[in-house]
Amino acid sequence: MQMKKPRIVITMGDPTGVGPEIIAKALADPAVRECCRHLVVGDEFAMSRGIALTGTGFRIETSESVPFEEPADGVITLRKVTSLSAEDLCYGQPTIASGDAVFRSICHAADLCLKGEADGMATAPINKGALNRAGHRYPGHTELLAELTGADRVVMMLAGARLRVALVTIHEALVRVPALVTFEQVLETIRITHRDVHRYFTRNPRIAVLALNPHCGEGGMFGDEESRIIAPAVQAARQEGIDATGPLSADTLFHFAVHGAYDAVVCMYHDQGLIPLKLLHFDDGVNVTLGLPIIRTSVDHGTAYDLAGTGKASAESMKAAIMMAAAMAGSRREESGAP
């Protein structure tokens, strides 16, 4: 029996940013439409404006029905969760109403996934300040989704065709990072990375674990987190059957990772992993939230207010996020034996 295409729900993101237009561009790509059945969650006026900007010529059809239908050519299927006014849709000027719209879209998409009515979600970029001004106190997508899905521990992974990086700490001041790199945090990040990379991307992944300090601390001259925290966490992971190696020096490891020696790299802090990732995959990188009971991918860039309303924003990361969510859903189906 032929498997049905995965059902991917796409959240529109900040309606005053580039979200609507990059979604329209992404769904104009035949490869994206071929990989999944889509449903956009957001605002009809904002989405119509994004379509007009891009010249893609789509017609919007609103739908309240599930399961997803195969969209007709020239159609974007929309689940309308807000009716924003023109005053709330000035490019680059997010409002409380637009911040609340972001929240509603994410909650609706997560609910569809939790109920099994969607196979995964791909998210356009949001403005965290607007989200918080609307009364929704979350640092971003990841923390909100963790709460909505009841996930105890999640891991941010940025991925492209040549490199995957997972982070022990995320948006933290550099001065705070050493205190946050604990045995428990490193080990749990390795575990979650192993489990979900194995489940969705490649069996029995080879995981490189980076040092915190230059030259792995140089025998304690530059810090002892490697011998005191990271090496014991790697050893504990190996005792659980995880193919983890480390701690490894960050200044040389990425050369070997991008040439295929490892399937994922566990990094201690944000820029340690995202600088090499974005050097290679600036246009087509995907943010994947590991550790959730649902599939969630996202673009790896922000709202791009300087480009919003011009129709010039690249849709490559949005395309990659939708296609990766569909591929992950296919892997989950194969694992479960579902049609």
Automatic annotation (TrEMBL):
<keyword id="KW-0664">Pyridoxine biosynthesis</keyword>
<dbReference type="InterPro" id="IPR005255">
    <property type="entry name" value="PdxA_fam"/>
</dbReference>
<dbReference type="GO" id="GO:0008615">
    <property type="term" value="P:pyridoxine biosynthetic process"/>
</dbReference>
<feature type="binding site">
    <location>
        <position position="278"/>
    </location>
    <ligand>
        <name>substrate</name>
    </ligand>
</feature>
<dbReference type="GO" id="GO:0051287">
    <property type="term" value="F:NAD binding"/>
</dbReference>
<dbReference type="GO" id="GO:0050570">
    <property type="term" value="F:4-hydroxythreonine-4-phosphate dehydrogenase activity"/>
</dbReference>
<comment type="similarity">
    <text>Belongs to the PdxA family.</text>
</comment>
<dbReference type="GO" id="GO:0005737">
    <property type="term" value="C:cytoplasm"/>
</dbReference>
<dbReference type="Pfam" id="PF04166">
    <property type="entry name" value="PdxA"/>
</dbReference>
<feature type="binding site">
    <location>
        <position position="215"/>
    </location>
    <ligand>
        <name>a divalent metal cation</name>
    </ligand>
</feature>
<comment type="subunit">
    <text>Homodimer.</text>
</comment>
<dbReference type="InterPro" id="IPR037510">
    <property type="entry name" value="PdxA"/>
</dbReference>
<feature type="binding site">
    <location>
        <position position="141"/>
    </location>
    <ligand>
        <name>substrate</name>
    </ligand>
</feature>
<feature type="binding site">
    <location>
        <position position="270"/>
    </location>
    <ligand>
        <name>a divalent metal cation</name>
    </ligand>
</feature>
<keyword id="KW-0521">NADP</keyword>
<keyword id="KW-0479">Metal-binding</keyword>
<keyword id="KW-0560">Oxidoreductase</keyword>
<feature type="binding site">
    <location>
        <position position="142"/>
    </location>
    <ligand>
        <name>substrate</name>
    </ligand>
</feature>
<dbReference type="GO" id="GO:0046872">
    <property type="term" value="F:metal ion binding"/>
</dbReference>
<dbReference type="GO" id="GO:0042823">
    <property type="term" value="P:pyridoxal phosphate biosynthetic process"/>
</dbReference>
<keyword id="KW-0963">Cytoplasm</keyword>
<feature type="binding site">
    <location>
        <position position="287"/>
    </location>
    <ligand>
        <name>substrate</name>
    </ligand>
</feature>
<comment type="pathway">
    <text>Cofactor biosynthesis; pyridoxine 5'-phosphate biosynthesis; pyridoxine 5'-phosphate from D-erythrose 4-phosphate: step 4/5.</text>
</comment>
<feature type="binding site">
    <location>
        <position position="296"/>
    </location>
    <ligand>
        <name>substrate</name>
    </ligand>
</feature>
<keyword id="KW-0520">NAD</keyword>
<protein>
    <recommendedName>
        <fullName>4-hydroxythreonine-4-phosphate dehydrogenase</fullName>
        <ecNumber>1.1.1.262</ecNumber>
    </recommendedName>
</protein>
<feature type="binding site">
    <location>
        <position position="171"/>
    </location>
    <ligand>
        <name>a divalent metal cation</name>
    </ligand>
</feature>
<comment type="function">
    <text>Catalyzes the NAD(P)-dependent oxidation of 4-(phosphooxy)-L-threonine (HTP) into 2-amino-3-oxo-4-(phosphooxy)butyric acid which spontaneously decarboxylates to form 3-amino-2-oxopropyl phosphate (AHAP).</text>
</comment>
